[in-house]
Specification:
4 strands; mainly alpha; about 170 residues; about 75% helix; two-stranded antiparallel ribbon; single chain
Length: about 170
């Protein structure tokens, strides 16, 4: 009888519970590796397409006059009439999105995105009463909308970090 087996009263042998635990760990590890391989394979393309869709969608709303952010943009950039600036910003955002969706233009999209992003934070400086309930921690919905751009910047850095890999393939 091996050390990893125990004797059942009827004379049969049961595998040692530690063997079953080890086997379960091995199965979990195989499944976990397969899942993480797929996440690695799909993660950046999905992130790039998601960014593209968000920019096309939000920009398109500015172009057609349906953006909930239009008033905030107009209040922030008051030197240019809102009826001119908001649609131009919308076209800019649509271009960012389309560039991200069309792989050869990712670099252009990332450049346009990083030129646009600083402006998205202007209300925090110019309109703090619109962005904060209690400065500097409690944000309004508008403030949350602005701060979420940190995630977009992070995602753009990840996507932008792959353009050399794409060119070398």
């Amino acid at each position: 009888m091996s050390a990893s087996e125990t004797v059942r009263p009827e004379g049969g042998r049961d595998p040692d519970p530690t063997d079953r635990l080890g086997s379960a760990r091995e199965r979990f590890d195989r499944i976990d590796r397969a899942i993480t391989r797929e996440m690695d394979r799909l993660g950046i393309p999905v992130l790039r397409v998601a960014l593209g869709i968000v920019f096309v969608w939000f920009g398109g709303l500015k172009v057609i006059g349906g953006s909930p952010a239009a008033d905030l943009v107009a209040a922030t950039v008051y030197v240019v009439p809102a009826e001119v600036f908001v649609p131009i910003l919308g076209v800019w955002e649509v271009l960012i999105g389309l560039c991200l969706l069309y792989r050869p233009l990712i670099r252009v999209g990332i450049l346009l995105l990083f030129l646009q992003m600083p402006g998205t934070f202007l209300p925090m400086v110019l309109l703090p009463e619109v962005v904060f309930v209690t400065f500097p921690f409690e944000l309004t919905v508008e403030g949350q909308y602005i701060v979420k751009n940190l995630v977009i910047i992070g995602a753009a850095l990840v996507v932008g970090g792959t353009v050399r890999e794409d060119a070398e393939e």
